[in-house]
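Service request form, structural biology core

Requester: graduate student, group of Dr. S.
Request type: structure prediction, single chain
Budget code: on file
Notes: please return the result as structure tokens.

Sequence provided:
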Amino acid sequence: MSSFGYLLFTSFYNSSLSNPLKPSSYRQKYEPLPTRQAQVENLRKERFDVLVIGGGATGCGIALDSVTRGLKTGLVELDDFASGASSKSTKLIHGGVRYLQKAIFNLDIEQYKMVREALRERANLLEIAPHLSAPLPIMLPVYKWYLIPWYWVGLKAYDLVAGTRSLKWSYFLSKKRALELFPMLKRDQLKGAIVYYDGAHNDARMCLSIALTAARRGAQVANHVAVTALIKDPEQGDKICGVMAKDQLTGQEFPIRAKCVINATGPHADSIRMMDDPSAMKICAPSSGVHIVLPGYYSPQSMGLLDPDTKDGRVIFFLPWQKYTIAGTTDNECEPDFHPGPTEDDIQYILKEVRKYLAPEIELRRSDVLAAWSGVRPLVRDPSKPDSQSLVRNHVVHTSDSGLVTCAGGKWTTYRQMAEDTLTEVLNNHPDLRSKAAPCQTIGLRLEGGDNWTPTLYIELVQDYGLEPEVAMNLAESYGDRAYVVAEMAQPTGKKWPKAGRRIHSELPYIEAEVRFATREYAQTAVDVIARRLRISFLNVTACEEALGKIVGIMAEELKWSKSEQKKQIQEALQFLENEMGLHHEIQDGHACSGDHHSKDGKK
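Core staff response, request fulfilled:
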């Protein structure tokens, strides 16, 4: 046990002798969310002002904007919340340093406006979900003297555009200081480094928090509900008045009635547009971005790294995340695949680029890759512009003749502004909704878990519940003030220390109670849990495979699964790990292996 852990144990043990676990005023007032079954039933029965198709960051943001304006709002998602690109990002909340560089040197006012907007949204996102996000210093190592003023000017301009929303001002580091902060760096010819600040976040849980906040405000949100057709009213000139939906879990089909239907399906936006009009032009030009996860010792836990200029013009990030290291990304044209997987070429490309910046004595091996994934991000064309074949850098909001509103493009950081722009379009086209809608409420609106979070919350969890510090920290950072609710569900360990919180795997800080709580957060499949509630599959696919049986067993108790359903869930989760997260793709010493990669548990 670490000295810090021992001190917390002593504090807990001494306080528990005279003071049993004290109740929290927050825990007493926590109200569970409506069940998914209740949400689906309400979608079937009620008529909505706004119905959103798509449960990524954009769709959930639109639902939250709509419901907080006082509009009756519904949302359906084919798979799970954040199952697409919203869970497969670089985990950065950023303004776009390279966009600003292009804006300055190309005198491009549109690029400048986009960066300014993103920096404003970055500040808001860090404020509304402090448990899920934090500022992150990112180092640009410099190996040529002439690049120092080039990078310096660009990053100082980034600070100036951020203005009062700047996280911290960028600064220069000597070679000696850069190596002290990032000792893994290649030393030869290093001239120094420049450090700037952006934000980092837990993307899938951030998206989930937006969805849960919308649900708590009264929106009816349901994952695993497909839209099979758009409903049009011939008496209203074939205007869209709802959708035909199918519950993917029960097979039940039903109509959902709505005054306005919004298409927020990311790279799949064209499929919904063609339901509306089979002759509609395609506006999406999807691009895949692959990331890999490495052990945490490859990067300092308080500093990231950016290679701003690879040989082929891409950008490579090397970032600490969840005590591990993320490296990426690639940028390749692709089809709008619902289940993209990483290619070996892309993984090798990232490893090759990262090796250029590591000290020669550090051998970065293919077998160090603990997980890998590909996210499909949408670049879009604006169908309302004369030059409709050119890609736009920002998002597009477009209304078809039948009233389908499509919001596409953009990036994670600007989801809130995209939602506001979409609602502006909706209200302009629907005077009846405009007359009753309040102004936008989402600037500064705390997300689920953020209201009563404090940086010391995890210490309370250790002292009140006897949790391990690492487990308590993970609960506080994943659930915010809802961590108390999860801690209440934690079962005794039967040990002196920790008192409670049975881990689902020895290498990871997740506990069994989180799996139970995940079903209260609308997790309906094993993949929902391992990918988007607990993030295990994004950190270590081998450990995830080993923990799968335990996870499915706990879910079976909560969701009343039969033995055959449990077997099906395990098979589908293994398929997900193999096809989308890089399980059994390891290469050791230059040879492909079948996945015989042992964890510290000694299991296969």
